[in-house]
């Protein structure tokens, strides 16, 4: 199925004492970081339940494809589990999408949170299952590696349905192009957005506010991936764009310019609002944002505001 704004399901909100599943759909998990992150989740009042293969390893993935997919499907079908948090990104989410069951997922809607390599899973949930999914911190890969005080509060506030969690702002945000835009949120890690092209899971960007972030990519690779999206028509009809901090995405030598030069080449005469340096990726703080949910992007106030609650 292909989702529309009218068919998208808002998952039930989380409450104190709720059981949340922790799964590893992609890369293998560092056990020390996992335990640190689990303590953060427990500190929020949730009870984490580990998937069977969270600590497994198969080459550069957390176990075989079928096992990682089954862990995720088991959490959707477990009636005691109220939400599903990804342990980390890495690599491998692309390999499990064909093993997932959209009808079962849609019949058991739950909060799912992840980022980085989980980008493909989040967009699969929105586009192929009609379920709002959350681009946000991961248990080991985020909470297990950084303190993220602001992120913790915002994460919990949004997922428990508190209305205070609907406006996002940061004093580090920069305005590349002015304006105001409304649209459904989508996007994620740049590498993964490119990896979706010409597949059944290709990112849909028209009439959307598009989030783009990445980490540890040389400047020329960022340039190349953005041009790939542009040449694929993915910037046509986009309402607005939010770039992350692009952590460690730097030139490799003198004379290669800056990431702002890359943006200027890609968007020489932008007619849409574009913000840069937003906390949406691999930095020390990270917004939790609902993909598929309508939002307003305002360059004057440098804010992103959700139109309504993203959970029931």
Overview of the structural elements:
With 312 residues, this protein is α/β, with parallel strands linked by helices. It has two domains: 19-165, Murein tetrapeptidase LD-carboxypeptidase, N-terminal domain (Rossmann fold); 166-306, Glucose Oxidase, domain 1. The chain has nine helices and 14 strands. The strands form two sheets. Strands 6-14-13-8-9-10-11-7 form an eight-stranded mixed beta sheet. The radius of gyration is 18 Å and the shape is globular. It starts with 18 loop residues before the first strand and ends in a 6-residue tail after the last strand.
In short:
28% of the residues lie in helices and 21% in strands.
Element layout with pairings:
Blueprint: E1 19-23, H1 31-43, E2 47-50, H2 65-77, E3 81-86, H3 102-107, E4 111-114, H4 119-129, E5 133-135, H5 139-143, H6 149-159, E6 167-169, E7 174-177, E8 180-189, H7 190-196, E9 208-213, H8 219-231, E10 240-244, H9 259-266, E11 274-278, E12 289-291, E13 294-298, E14 303-306
Parallel strand pairs: 1-2, 1-3, 3-4, 4-5, 8-9, 9-10, 10-11
Antiparallel strand pairs: 5-12, 6-14, 7-11, 8-13, 13-14
Helix pairs in contact: 7-8, 8-9
How would the global form be characterised? globular
CATH class of the largest domain: Alpha Beta
Mean pLDDT: 95
Stretches where pLDDT is under 50 for at least 5 consecutive residues are: 1-6
| Estimated structural class | alpha/beta
- Per CATH, what is the topology of the largest domain? Rossmann fold
Order of strands, main sheet, comes to 6-14-13-8-9-10-11-7
Count every beta strand, where a strand is a DSSP E run of 2 or more residues. Answer: 14
| Spatial extent as radius of gyration | 18 Å
Determine the fraction of residues in helical runs and give it as a percent range.
25-40%
What portion of the residues fall into strands of 2 or more residues? Answer: 15-25%
Total helical segments = 9
Query: How many domains in all?
Result: 2
The CATH superfamily of the largest domain is known as Murein tetrapeptidase LD-carboxypeptidase, N-terminal domain
Q: Write the element-wise H/E pattern from the N-terminal end onward.
A: EHEHEHEHEHHEEEHEHEHEEEE
Q: Return the CATH architecture of the largest domain.
A: 3-Layer(aba) Sandwich
Q: Describe the biggest sheet?
A: 8 strands, mixed
């Amino acid at each position: 199925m292909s989702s529309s704004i009218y068919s998208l399901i808002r998952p039930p909100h989380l409450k104190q004492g709720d059981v949340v599943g922790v799964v590893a759909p992609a890369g293998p998990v560092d056990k020390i970081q996992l335990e640190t992150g689990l303590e953060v989740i427990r500190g929020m009042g949730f009870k984490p339940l580990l998937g069977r293969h969270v600590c497994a390893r198969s080459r550069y993935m957390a176990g075989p494809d079928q096992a990682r997919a089954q862990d995720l499907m088991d959490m959707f079908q477990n009636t005691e589990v109220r939400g599903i948090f990804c342990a980390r990104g890495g690599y491998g989410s692309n390999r499990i999408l064909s093993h997932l069951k959209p009808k079962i997922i849609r019949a058991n809607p739950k909060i799912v949170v992840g980022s980085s390599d989980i980008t493909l899973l989040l967009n699969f949930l929105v586009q192929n299952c009609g379920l709002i999914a959350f681009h946000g911190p991961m248990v080991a890969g985020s909470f297990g590696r950084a303190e993220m005080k602001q992120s913790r509060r915002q994460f919990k506030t949004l997922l428990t349905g508190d209305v205070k969690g609907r406006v996002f702002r940061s004093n580090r945000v920069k305005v590349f192009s002015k304006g105001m835009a409304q649209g459904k949120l989508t996007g994620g890690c740049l590498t993964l957005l490119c990896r979706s092209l010409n597949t059944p899971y290709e990112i849909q960007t028209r009439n959307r506010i598009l989030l783009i972030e990445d980490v540890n990519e040389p400047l020329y690779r960022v340039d190349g991936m953005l041009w790939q999206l542009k040449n694929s028509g993915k910037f046509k009809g986009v309402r607005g764009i939010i770039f992350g901090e692009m952590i460690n995405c730097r030139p490799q030598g003198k004379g290669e310019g800056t990431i702002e030069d890359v943006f200027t080449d890609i968007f020489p005469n932008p007619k849409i609002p574009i913000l840069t340096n937003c906390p949406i990726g691999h930095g020390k703080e990270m917004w939790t944002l609902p993909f598929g949910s309508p939002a307003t992007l305002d360059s004057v106030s440098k804010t992103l505001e959700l139109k309504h609650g993203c959970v029931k």
